[in-house]
Amino acid sequence: MPLPKAELHLHIEGTLEPELAFALAERNGVPLPYADTEELRKAYLFDDLQSFLDLYYGLMAVLRTEADFEDLADAYLARAAAQGVRHAEIFFDPQAHTARGIPFATVVEGLGRALDRSEERHGVSTRLIMCFLRDQSAESAMATLEAAKPHLDRIIGVGLDSAEVGHPPSKFAAVYEAAGVLGLRKVAHAGEEGPAAYVREALDVLGVERIDHGLRCVEDPELVERLVRDRVPLTLCPLSNVRLRAVDILEQHPLPRMMAAGLLCTINSDDPAYFGGYVDDTFHAVHEALGIGPEGLRELARNSFEAAFLDGGPEEEAL
Ligand code: HPA
Ligand code: ZN
Predict the structure, then answer these.
(1) What interface predicted TM-score (ipTM) does this complex get?
(2) Of 121, 139, 200, 253, which is the most exposed, with the fewest CB atoms less than 10 Å away?
């Protein structure tokens, strides 16, 4: 029996398995530059974040209708449930779809249809977090927040993803401030490929409550001390870090050191269709490669519920 856990760092577009990609390509008459699923899988050899993102954004061409987004999310939730996930906070990238002419409403309503049935069908509670693409402009992020306004009953927070280096969190100060005014929760990818300074900026300038990845905080002992003291959760993704070459091999991942330092670590699958495993596969992998034993695995699972947005947020905590 897999440990019950929450998954907090999961891009729904990154759950697009080759089989579903081909099925949707056929359903929508979208040509794919791969002969079959085998050939597509062979393309999953990445040098860094950007080489992954090129394929990730390209394959999204097959996602066109509400039914496509519904099928994508339902397939993830079924797999997640089988891996012990009881609660999932799911990222999506609206700009990657609106830029292709797919309306914001199509994406959110399609995902929403699957999420609405998730507790009943899969026993998984869900939240939806929309991410701004940091390699797009701050104005585009603000326009995306504006487009989200009619759908805020479905969206609990904002995040920041895509190509990190050269796109520091401070670029998005205004849109995060506006999101806060709307009562949205705040997270951001930081310290995946970018420096520890980006983690500080995400905390100080954007006011995020969690850091996605945060791997490179280990290069800054004062920052580690602060993250420990303030119990800032890190949503680590060890299999992603190996596939995108943030670490050479899983055996060298700093997760055990980070846990020993007292950081509030969670482990997650990020883009499981591309990185070779869903979240319980990740639990098994860190056990095998890093020697994290049953007590450590339970700590990671407990942390995932502590770090989840299952409470009422900063305003409730201030009461
Ligand atoms: N990092 C940044 N952007 C992303 C990722 C990631 O791991 N996955 C999908 N978009
Ligand atoms: Zn991510």
Answers:
(1) 0.97
(2) 139
How close are the terminal C-alpha atoms of the chain, in Å? 39
Cα(310)–Cα(319) distance, integer angstroms: 16
pLDDT of residue 191: 98
Tokens 């983690």 belong to residue: 199
Distance 316 CA to ligand 1 centre (A): 30
The radius of gyration of the chain's CA atoms, rounded to the nearest angstrom, is 18
Geometric angle at alpha carbon 224, from 221 and 226, rounded to 5°: 115
Provide the 3-class DSSP secondary structure of residue 244: coil
Give the CATH number of domain 5-307.
3.20.20.140
Q: Report the residue among 270, 274, 275 best suited for mutation to probe ligand 1: largest number of ligand atoms under 8 A from its CB.
A: 270
Q: In this structure, what token pair is assigned to residue 203?
A: 């905390």
pLDDT, tens digit (0-9, with 9 covering 90-100), for 223-264: 999 999 999 999 999 999 999 999 999 999 999 999 999 999
Domain ranges in the chain are 5-307
Tokens, residue 87 = 């609660």
